[in-house]
């Protein structure tokens, strides 16, 4: 997916989410984000989209102004549909004003800028719509190709240099001596090998032997790896090899779940 495809999907995912949460009880707990209510989830999604729109639209070289300008969501859930839709529209407008090589700060450590943020907004929309589905008892669907793209976002972000450096607890837990995990989608092209090294988790987009192999439908992969669905609730996933290694990986995939 390219930047324009990501932003188109962000609008679509956000529209679905907005329809689900419109007028709902703001105090509804979100089980997959144990410290959050539905109001927190809406605030996070719409506030993040507006923050990224500022970063990209103003071509910021550092994030302080965008963080300071974070806009909280409305307390009235009857306003959530419009507020979320407006956030996606603002992001779309911001990305339309720049090119992929326009310098923009991002936290990855790789100076990925505009492409990083378009992919990140897409990943955010997919995963947090899954949170809303669990909270509200809604069925969750995601096309295999989009699920592969969402998993690419999750894995690339979690294994980025910036995440490693800024999350010392994660780095300590993931530090290793070459232990490897192979993730493979069976319904769309997409496979990754993550290797735990002393100074990083190296991510390769390839087919290779690994200590543990996890394969199955892309939507199950992204939901299990992002801890939005338990492995027991995803019987279509096949785990071969060192199950304890995979369990350890999942245990520490707790980014944005609290």
Detailed description of the structure:
- The protein is α+β, with helices and mostly antiparallel strands.
- Helices cover 50% and strands 10% of the residues.
- The model has no long low-confidence stretch (mean pLDDT 95).
- It has helices spanning 3-21, 38-57, 64-68, 80-96, 113-136, 144-158, 161-166, 168-174, 218-225, 243-251, and strands at 179-185, 191-196, 201-204, 212-216, 238-241.
- The longest helix is centred in the middle third of the chain and has 24 residues, at 113-136.
- The radius of gyration is 18 Å and the shape is globular.
- The chain has a five-stranded mixed beta sheet with strand order 3-2-1-4-5.
Which structural traits does this protein have?
alpha+beta, 5-stranded mixed beta sheet, globular, 50% helix, 10 helices, single chain, 258 residues
- Ends distance: 29 Å
Round the mean pLDDT to the nearest integer and report it: 95
Strand order of the largest sheet: 3-2-1-4-5
Could you give the count of β-strands? 5
Q: How would you sum up the global shape?
A: globular
Q: Rg to the nearest angstrom?
A: 18 Å
Unreliably modeled segments: none
H and E string: HHHHHHHHEEEEHEH
Strand content: 5-15%
Structural class: alpha+beta
**Helix content range of the residues, please?**
40-55%
Q: Report the major sheet.
A: 5 strands, mixed
User: How many helix segments?
Assistant: 10
